[in-house]
Protein backbone atom coordinates (compact mmCIF):
# COMPACT_ATOMS: atom_id res chain seq x y z
CA UNK A 1 0.00 0.00 0.00
CA UNK A 2 2.75 2.48 0.92
CA UNK A 3 5.26 3.06 -1.84
CA UNK A 4 8.76 3.38 -0.58
CA UNK A 5 9.86 5.93 -3.16
CA UNK A 6 10.80 8.50 -0.54
CA UNK A 7 12.61 5.96 1.63
CA UNK A 8 16.22 6.52 2.59
CA UNK A 9 18.86 4.17 1.23
CA UNK A 10 20.34 1.75 3.70
CA UNK A 11 23.81 0.29 3.77
CA UNK A 12 25.14 -2.95 5.25
CA UNK A 13 27.11 -0.96 7.84
CA UNK A 14 23.96 0.91 8.95
CA UNK A 15 22.03 -2.34 9.18
CA UNK A 16 24.80 -3.84 11.31
CA UNK A 17 24.88 -0.87 13.69
CA UNK A 18 21.10 -0.78 14.04
CA UNK A 19 20.83 -4.53 14.66
CA UNK A 20 24.05 -5.11 16.59
CA UNK A 21 22.25 -5.41 19.94
CA UNK A 22 18.70 -6.42 19.02
CA UNK A 23 19.75 -9.08 16.48
CA UNK A 24 22.99 -9.91 18.36
CA UNK A 25 25.18 -9.42 15.33
CA UNK A 26 28.94 -9.86 15.04
CA UNK A 27 31.26 -9.52 12.09
CA UNK A 28 32.61 -12.69 10.56
CA UNK A 29 34.41 -11.53 7.42
CA UNK A 30 34.87 -8.54 5.09
CA UNK A 31 33.51 -6.05 7.64
CA UNK A 32 35.46 -3.25 5.98
CA UNK A 33 33.41 -3.74 2.79
CA UNK A 34 30.16 -2.90 4.59
CA UNK A 35 30.48 0.90 4.52
CA UNK A 36 28.57 2.35 1.59
CA UNK A 37 27.41 -1.10 0.42
CA UNK A 38 23.73 -0.68 -0.24
CA UNK A 39 21.01 -3.21 0.56
CA UNK A 40 19.05 -2.66 -2.63
CA UNK A 41 15.99 -4.64 -1.69
CA UNK A 42 14.80 -4.38 1.88
CA UNK A 43 14.04 -8.04 2.47
CA UNK A 44 15.73 -11.28 3.41
CA UNK A 45 16.31 -14.39 1.34
CA UNK A 46 17.26 -17.97 2.17
CA UNK A 47 19.27 -18.91 -0.92
CA UNK A 48 18.53 -22.65 -0.73
CA UNK A 49 17.50 -22.96 -4.37
CA UNK A 50 20.48 -20.98 -5.59
CA UNK A 51 22.86 -23.15 -3.59
CA UNK A 52 21.13 -26.17 -5.13
CA UNK A 53 22.27 -24.72 -8.48
CA UNK A 54 18.90 -23.41 -9.60
CA UNK A 55 20.13 -19.99 -10.65
CA UNK A 56 17.05 -18.29 -12.07
CA UNK A 57 15.15 -15.73 -10.00
CA UNK A 58 17.90 -15.42 -7.41
CA UNK A 59 16.87 -12.50 -5.16
CA UNK A 60 20.44 -11.25 -5.08
CA UNK A 61 19.57 -7.71 -3.96
CA UNK A 62 18.43 -8.98 -0.57
CA UNK A 63 20.19 -9.95 2.63
CA UNK A 64 21.10 -13.66 2.29
CA UNK A 65 20.60 -15.84 5.36
CA UNK A 66 22.45 -19.13 5.73
CA UNK A 67 20.71 -21.30 8.30
CA UNK A 68 21.06 -24.86 9.48
CA UNK A 69 19.51 -26.33 6.32
CA UNK A 70 21.74 -24.39 3.89
CA UNK A 71 24.90 -25.21 5.82
CA UNK A 72 24.03 -28.89 6.11
CA UNK A 73 23.31 -29.03 2.41
CA UNK A 74 26.62 -27.36 1.51
CA UNK A 75 28.46 -29.78 3.78
CA UNK A 76 26.97 -32.67 1.82
CA UNK A 77 28.60 -31.50 -1.45
CA UNK A 78 32.05 -32.30 -2.82
CA UNK A 79 34.60 -29.69 -1.67
CA UNK A 80 35.09 -28.12 -5.12
CA UNK A 81 31.39 -28.02 -5.94
CA UNK A 82 30.66 -26.53 -2.52
CA UNK A 83 32.87 -23.53 -3.25
CA UNK A 84 31.37 -23.06 -6.70
CA UNK A 85 27.90 -22.88 -5.16
CA UNK A 86 28.95 -20.39 -2.50
CA UNK A 87 30.40 -18.19 -5.24
CA UNK A 88 26.89 -17.89 -6.68
CA UNK A 89 26.13 -15.57 -3.75
CA UNK A 90 28.75 -13.02 -4.88
CA UNK A 91 26.27 -10.30 -6.02
CA UNK A 92 24.51 -10.23 -2.60
CA UNK A 93 24.93 -7.19 -0.36
CA UNK A 94 25.59 -9.28 2.75
CA UNK A 95 25.47 -12.84 4.06
CA UNK A 96 24.23 -13.62 7.56
CA UNK A 97 25.08 -16.86 9.37
CA UNK A 98 22.43 -17.80 11.92
CA UNK A 99 22.81 -19.72 15.20
CA UNK A 100 26.18 -17.99 15.80
CA UNK A 101 27.89 -20.23 13.25
CA UNK A 102 31.27 -19.35 11.86
CA UNK A 103 32.02 -19.56 8.17
CA UNK A 104 33.63 -22.96 7.53
CA UNK A 105 37.35 -22.46 6.89
CA UNK A 106 36.92 -24.12 3.49
CA UNK A 107 34.87 -21.09 2.32
CA UNK A 108 36.91 -18.30 3.79
CA UNK A 109 39.26 -17.79 0.84
CA UNK A 110 36.43 -17.77 -1.69
CA UNK A 111 34.29 -15.38 0.34
CA UNK A 112 37.27 -13.08 0.93
CA UNK A 113 37.73 -12.90 -2.85
CA UNK A 114 34.02 -12.31 -3.40
CA UNK A 115 34.24 -9.34 -1.04
CA UNK A 116 30.75 -9.92 0.38
CA UNK A 117 30.52 -8.90 4.06
CA UNK A 118 29.52 -11.79 6.32
CA UNK A 119 27.97 -11.39 9.76
CA UNK A 120 26.83 -13.82 12.43
CA UNK A 121 23.67 -13.67 14.49
CA UNK A 122 23.19 -15.66 17.65
CA UNK A 123 19.49 -16.05 16.82
CA UNK A 124 18.02 -19.05 15.05
CA UNK A 125 17.08 -18.43 11.41
CA UNK A 126 13.32 -18.03 11.78
CA UNK A 127 13.49 -15.54 14.63
CA UNK A 128 16.28 -13.63 12.91
CA UNK A 129 14.27 -13.29 9.71
CA UNK A 130 11.22 -11.97 11.56
CA UNK A 131 13.14 -9.45 13.66
CA UNK A 132 15.43 -8.34 10.83
CA UNK A 133 12.45 -7.75 8.52
CA UNK A 134 10.82 -5.42 11.05
CA UNK A 135 14.12 -3.61 11.67
CA UNK A 136 14.81 -3.13 7.97
CA UNK A 137 11.31 -1.82 7.37
CA UNK A 138 11.54 0.67 10.20
CA UNK A 139 14.96 1.82 9.01
CA UNK A 140 13.65 2.51 5.54
CA UNK A 141 10.26 3.93 6.45
CA UNK A 142 9.41 7.22 4.74
CA UNK A 143 10.52 10.19 6.81
CA UNK A 144 10.53 13.96 6.86
CA UNK A 145 12.06 16.62 9.04
CA UNK A 146 9.60 18.93 10.72
CA UNK A 147 10.59 22.32 12.08
CA UNK A 148 8.90 21.90 15.43
CA UNK A 149 9.31 20.86 19.04
CA UNK A 150 7.70 17.59 20.05
CA UNK A 151 6.45 16.77 23.54
CA UNK A 152 4.49 14.00 25.16
CA UNK A 153 1.58 15.33 27.21
CA UNK A 154 -0.41 12.77 29.22
CA UNK A 155 0.32 10.09 26.65
CA UNK A 156 -0.50 12.31 23.67
CA UNK A 157 2.29 13.12 21.20
CA UNK A 158 2.14 16.83 20.35
CA UNK A 159 4.21 18.69 17.74
CA UNK A 160 4.52 22.43 18.44
CA UNK A 161 5.06 24.48 15.30
CA UNK A 162 5.79 28.15 14.84
CA UNK A 163 8.49 30.49 13.69
CA UNK A 164 11.77 30.63 15.62
CA UNK A 165 11.44 32.74 18.76
CA UNK A 166 7.69 32.29 19.18
CA UNK A 167 8.23 30.26 22.36
CA UNK A 168 8.04 26.57 21.46
CA UNK A 169 10.93 25.59 23.69
CA UNK A 170 9.67 27.70 26.61
CA UNK A 171 6.32 25.91 26.47
CA UNK A 172 8.07 22.54 26.26
CA UNK A 173 10.11 23.51 29.31
CA UNK A 174 7.00 24.47 31.28
CA UNK A 175 5.36 21.17 30.28
CA UNK A 176 8.43 19.22 31.42
CA UNK A 177 8.21 20.98 34.78
CA UNK A 178 4.64 19.75 35.05
CA UNK A 179 5.72 16.15 34.54
CA UNK A 180 5.37 15.79 30.77
CA UNK A 181 8.33 14.85 28.60
CA UNK A 182 10.41 16.11 25.72
CA UNK A 183 10.74 14.14 22.48
CA UNK A 184 12.64 16.64 20.33
CA UNK A 185 13.44 20.34 20.52
CA UNK A 186 13.20 22.48 17.40
CA UNK A 187 13.71 19.73 14.82
CA UNK A 188 11.67 16.54 14.80
CA UNK A 189 12.12 13.56 12.51
CA UNK A 190 8.74 12.10 11.56
CA UNK A 191 8.55 8.59 10.16
CA UNK A 192 5.62 6.48 9.03
CA UNK A 193 6.00 3.06 10.62
CA UNK A 194 4.85 -0.26 9.16
CA UNK A 195 1.43 0.10 10.85
CA UNK A 196 0.80 3.47 9.20
CA UNK A 197 1.30 5.54 12.38
CA UNK A 198 3.52 8.62 12.39
CA UNK A 199 6.35 8.45 14.90
CA UNK A 200 8.34 11.45 16.05
CA UNK A 201 11.91 11.41 17.34
CA UNK A 202 14.83 13.77 17.77
CA UNK A 203 17.83 13.99 15.49
CA UNK A 204 20.29 11.73 17.36
CA UNK A 205 22.99 14.37 17.78
CA UNK A 206 20.78 16.90 19.59
CA UNK A 207 18.51 14.42 21.38
CA UNK A 208 17.68 15.30 25.03
CA UNK A 209 18.95 18.84 24.54
CA UNK A 210 17.08 22.06 24.12
CA UNK A 211 17.91 25.68 23.64
CA UNK A 212 16.32 28.26 25.88
CA UNK A 213 16.93 31.86 24.84
CA UNK A 214 19.05 33.57 27.44
CA UNK A 215 20.24 30.31 28.98
CA UNK A 216 21.68 28.52 25.98
CA UNK A 217 21.75 24.77 25.48
CA UNK A 218 20.56 22.62 28.37
CA UNK A 219 20.60 18.85 28.87
CA UNK A 220 17.06 18.05 29.93
CA UNK A 221 17.46 14.68 31.78
CA UNK A 222 20.39 16.06 33.82
CA UNK A 223 18.15 18.83 35.13
CA UNK A 224 14.78 17.09 35.33
CA UNK A 225 15.51 13.36 35.51
CA UNK A 226 15.29 10.55 33.02
CA UNK A 227 11.47 10.61 32.93
CA UNK A 228 11.59 14.08 31.37
CA UNK A 229 12.67 12.75 27.95
CA UNK A 230 11.40 10.10 25.55
CA UNK A 231 13.11 8.45 22.63
CA UNK A 232 10.20 8.25 20.24
CA UNK A 233 6.49 9.00 20.43
CA UNK A 234 3.48 8.62 18.20
CA UNK A 235 2.29 11.90 16.72
CA UNK A 236 -1.35 12.57 17.68
CA UNK A 237 -1.70 16.32 17.37
CA UNK A 238 -0.03 19.30 15.73
CA UNK A 239 -0.35 22.70 17.42
CA UNK A 240 0.51 25.61 15.16
CA UNK A 241 1.46 28.74 17.11
CA UNK A 242 0.95 32.11 15.45
CA UNK A 243 1.57 35.66 16.61
CA UNK A 244 -1.86 37.18 17.11
CA UNK A 245 -0.52 40.57 15.96
CA UNK A 246 -0.90 39.17 12.44
CA UNK A 247 -4.51 40.29 12.76
CA UNK A 248 -5.76 37.21 10.94
CA UNK A 249 -8.26 35.51 13.16
CA UNK A 250 -10.47 34.02 10.48
CA UNK A 251 -8.79 30.62 10.60
CA UNK A 252 -8.84 30.39 14.38
CA UNK A 253 -11.39 27.81 15.47
CA UNK A 254 -13.73 29.26 18.08
CA UNK A 255 -16.02 26.27 18.50
CA UNK A 256 -13.90 23.15 18.03
CA UNK A 257 -16.69 21.71 15.85
CA UNK A 258 -14.52 21.34 12.78
CA UNK A 259 -11.40 19.29 13.02
CA UNK A 260 -8.62 20.52 10.79
CA UNK A 261 -5.96 18.03 9.79
CA UNK A 262 -2.55 18.17 8.21
CA UNK A 263 -1.33 15.50 5.86
CA UNK A 264 1.91 14.04 7.19
CA UNK A 265 3.41 11.38 4.91
CA UNK A 266 -0.08 10.49 3.76
CA UNK A 267 -1.58 10.29 7.25
CA UNK A 268 -4.05 12.99 8.39
CA UNK A 269 -2.97 14.43 11.77
CA UNK A 270 -5.35 16.70 13.74
CA UNK A 271 -4.18 20.31 13.64
CA UNK A 272 -5.01 23.10 16.08
CA UNK A 273 -3.93 26.70 15.43
CA UNK A 274 -3.54 28.89 18.51
CA UNK A 275 -2.82 32.61 18.52
CA UNK A 276 0.08 33.69 20.69
CA UNK A 277 -0.40 36.93 22.60
CA UNK A 278 1.72 38.43 25.37
CA UNK A 279 0.63 37.13 28.75
CA UNK A 280 -1.35 34.20 27.37
CA UNK A 281 -0.50 30.99 29.22
CA UNK A 282 0.03 28.64 26.32
CA UNK A 283 1.29 25.83 28.53
CA UNK A 284 -2.22 25.38 29.83
CA UNK A 285 -3.67 25.63 26.35
CA UNK A 286 -1.32 22.93 25.03
CA UNK A 287 -2.07 20.69 28.00
CA UNK A 288 -5.82 21.05 27.50
CA UNK A 289 -5.52 20.59 23.73
CA UNK A 290 -3.71 17.30 24.36
CA UNK A 291 -6.33 16.12 26.84
CA UNK A 292 -9.09 17.18 24.48
CA UNK A 293 -7.44 15.22 21.70
CA UNK A 294 -7.36 12.16 23.93
CA UNK A 295 -11.02 12.61 24.67
CA UNK A 296 -11.71 12.79 20.94
CA UNK A 297 -9.70 9.65 20.30
CA UNK A 298 -11.94 7.97 22.85
CA UNK A 299 -14.95 9.13 20.84
CA UNK A 300 -16.10 12.20 22.75
CA UNK A 301 -16.18 15.57 21.01
CA UNK A 302 -17.01 18.22 23.64
CA UNK A 303 -17.97 20.88 21.10
CA UNK A 304 -20.26 18.54 19.21
CA UNK A 305 -21.88 17.26 22.42
CA UNK A 306 -22.65 20.83 23.55
CA UNK A 307 -23.93 21.71 20.09
CA UNK A 308 -26.34 18.76 20.17
CA UNK A 309 -27.65 19.93 23.55
CA UNK A 310 -28.04 23.47 22.21
CA UNK A 311 -29.99 22.27 19.19
CA UNK A 312 -32.37 20.28 21.38
CA UNK A 313 -32.86 23.24 23.72
CA UNK A 314 -33.42 25.67 20.85
CA UNK A 315 -35.95 23.45 19.12
CA UNK A 316 -38.03 23.34 22.32
CA UNK A 317 -38.32 27.14 22.39
CA UNK A 318 -40.30 27.18 19.13
CA UNK B 1 5.80 20.26 6.28
CA UNK B 2 5.82 22.30 3.15
CA UNK B 3 2.08 22.89 3.07
CA UNK B 4 2.25 25.05 6.21
CA UNK B 5 5.00 27.45 5.17
CA UNK B 6 3.65 30.43 3.28
CA UNK B 7 5.30 30.87 -0.10
CA UNK B 8 7.30 34.09 -0.08
CA UNK B 9 6.41 36.68 -2.66
CA UNK B 10 10.01 37.20 -3.80
CA UNK B 11 12.08 34.38 -5.23
CA UNK B 12 14.65 33.22 -2.71
CA UNK B 13 18.30 34.08 -3.29
CA UNK B 14 20.91 31.37 -2.80
CA UNK B 15 24.62 31.31 -2.08
CA UNK B 16 26.95 28.32 -1.83
CA UNK B 17 29.43 28.29 1.02
CA UNK B 18 32.01 25.87 2.40
CA UNK B 19 32.70 25.22 6.06
CA UNK B 20 36.34 26.25 6.44
CA UNK B 21 36.96 26.22 10.19
CA UNK B 22 38.47 23.05 11.61
CA UNK B 23 35.68 21.90 13.91
CA UNK B 24 32.79 22.74 11.61
CA UNK B 25 29.47 24.15 12.80
CA UNK B 26 29.65 23.31 16.50
CA UNK B 27 27.77 25.22 19.19
CA UNK B 28 29.73 28.49 19.00
CA UNK B 29 29.60 29.01 15.22
CA UNK B 30 25.95 27.92 15.26
CA UNK B 31 25.17 30.57 17.86
CA UNK B 32 27.05 33.18 15.82
CA UNK B 33 25.12 32.24 12.69
CA UNK B 34 21.78 32.39 14.53
CA UNK B 35 22.58 35.76 16.10
CA UNK B 36 23.65 37.18 12.77
CA UNK B 37 20.71 35.71 10.84
CA UNK B 38 18.26 37.03 13.42
CA UNK B 39 19.36 40.62 12.72
CA UNK B 40 17.66 40.34 9.33
CA UNK B 41 13.98 40.30 8.52
CA UNK B 42 14.52 37.82 5.67
CA UNK B 43 13.65 34.16 6.05
CA UNK B 44 16.98 32.35 5.93
CA UNK B 45 17.60 28.63 5.53
CA UNK B 46 20.80 26.60 5.40
CA UNK B 47 20.83 23.44 3.35
CA UNK B 48 23.13 20.44 3.32
CA UNK B 49 22.49 17.41 1.11
CA UNK B 50 18.85 18.33 0.66
CA UNK B 51 18.24 18.89 4.39
CA UNK B 52 17.11 22.45 5.05
CA UNK B 53 17.11 24.09 8.47
CA UNK B 54 16.12 27.54 9.64
CA UNK B 55 19.23 29.69 10.13
CA UNK B 56 17.58 31.42 13.09
CA UNK B 57 17.39 28.23 15.14
CA UNK B 58 20.48 26.96 16.91
CA UNK B 59 19.20 23.40 17.49
CA UNK B 60 18.31 23.10 13.83
CA UNK B 61 21.78 24.22 12.76
CA UNK B 62 23.40 21.65 15.03
CA UNK B 63 21.47 18.84 13.35
CA UNK B 64 22.80 19.43 9.84
CA UNK B 65 26.27 18.29 10.91
CA UNK B 66 28.20 20.91 8.99
CA UNK B 67 31.65 19.36 9.30
CA UNK B 68 34.87 20.91 8.06
CA UNK B 69 34.79 20.96 4.27
CA UNK B 70 31.01 20.55 4.02
CA UNK B 71 29.37 22.44 1.19
CA UNK B 72 26.23 24.23 2.24
CA UNK B 73 23.70 26.35 0.41
CA UNK B 74 22.21 29.47 1.97
CA UNK B 75 18.68 30.46 0.99
CA UNK B 76 17.18 33.82 1.83
CA UNK B 77 13.95 35.55 0.89
CA UNK B 78 12.67 38.93 1.97
CA UNK B 79 13.57 42.59 1.70
CA UNK B 80 17.10 42.33 3.10
CA UNK B 81 17.87 38.86 1.67
CA UNK B 82 20.90 39.93 -0.37
CA UNK B 83 22.52 41.73 2.53
CA UNK B 84 21.83 38.77 4.82
CA UNK B 85 23.53 36.36 2.42
CA UNK B 86 26.58 38.63 2.12
CA UNK B 87 26.92 38.89 5.88
CA UNK B 88 26.47 35.17 6.51
CA UNK B 89 28.81 34.11 3.70
CA UNK B 90 31.43 36.39 5.23
CA UNK B 91 31.16 34.51 8.53
CA UNK B 92 31.93 31.26 6.70
CA UNK B 93 34.89 32.86 4.90
CA UNK B 94 36.25 34.23 8.16
CA UNK B 95 36.00 30.74 9.69
CA UNK B 96 33.62 32.12 12.34
CA UNK B 97 36.67 33.89 13.81
CA UNK B 98 38.13 30.54 14.85
CA UNK B 99 41.36 28.63 14.04
Describe this structure in words.
The complex is a heterodimer of chains A (318) and B (99). Chain A contains ten helices and 16 strands. Chain A has helices at 12-19, 48-51, 68-75, 79-87, 105-114, 125-139, 168-177, 220-224, 282-297, 302-317, and strands at 25-29, 44-45, 63-66, 95-97, 118-121, 143-153, 156-161, 181-184, 187-192, 198-202, 209-212, 216-219, 232-234, 237-243, 260-264, 267-276. Chain A has two domains: 12-139, HprK N-terminal domain-like (Udp-n-acetylmuramoylalanyl-d-glutamate--2,6- Diaminopimelate Ligase, Chain: A, domain 1), CATH 3.40.1390.20; 143-306, P-loop containing nucleotide triphosphate hydrolases (Rossmann fold, 3-Layer(aba) Sandwich). The model of chain A is unreliable at 1-6 (pLDDT under 50). In chain A, strands 6, 7, 8, 9, 10, 13, 14, 15 and 16 form a nine-stranded mixed sheet that branches. A five-stranded mixed sheet of chain A has the order 1-5-4-3-2. Chain A has a two-stranded antiparallel sheet with strand order 11-12. In chain A, helix 4 (79-87) runs parallel beside helix 5 (105-114) and helix 7 packs across helix 9. In chain A, strand 2 (44-45), helix 2 (48-51) and strand 3 (63-66) form a beta-alpha-beta unit. Helices cover 32% and strands 26% of the residues of chain A. Chain A is of the alpha/beta class. In chain B, helix 1 packs antiparallel against helix 3. Chain B has a four-stranded antiparallel sheet. Chain B has one domain (13-94): 2-Layer Sandwich (Histidine-containing Protein, Chain: A). By secondary structure, chain B is of the alpha+beta class. The model of chain B is unreliable at 1-8 (pLDDT under 50). The chains are: A alpha/beta (318), B alpha+beta (99). The A-B interface holds A 144-148, 161, 164-165, 185-187, 203, 205-206, 209-211, 216-217, 240, 262-264 and B 1, 3-4, 27, 31, 38, 51-54, 56-60, 62-63, 65.
Amino acid sequence: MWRQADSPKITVAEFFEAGRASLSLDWELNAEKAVGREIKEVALNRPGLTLANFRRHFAYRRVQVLGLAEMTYLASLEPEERIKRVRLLAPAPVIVMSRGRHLPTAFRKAVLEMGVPVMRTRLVTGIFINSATVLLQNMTSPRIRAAGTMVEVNGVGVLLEGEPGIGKSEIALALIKRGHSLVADDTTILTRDSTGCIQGAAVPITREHMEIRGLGIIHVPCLFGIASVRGAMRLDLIIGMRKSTDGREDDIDRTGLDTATRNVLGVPIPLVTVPVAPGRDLTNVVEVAALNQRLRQLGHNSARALDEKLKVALSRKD
Amino acid sequence: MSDSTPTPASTPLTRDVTVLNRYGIHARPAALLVKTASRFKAEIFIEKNGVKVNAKSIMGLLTIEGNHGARLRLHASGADAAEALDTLAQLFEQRFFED
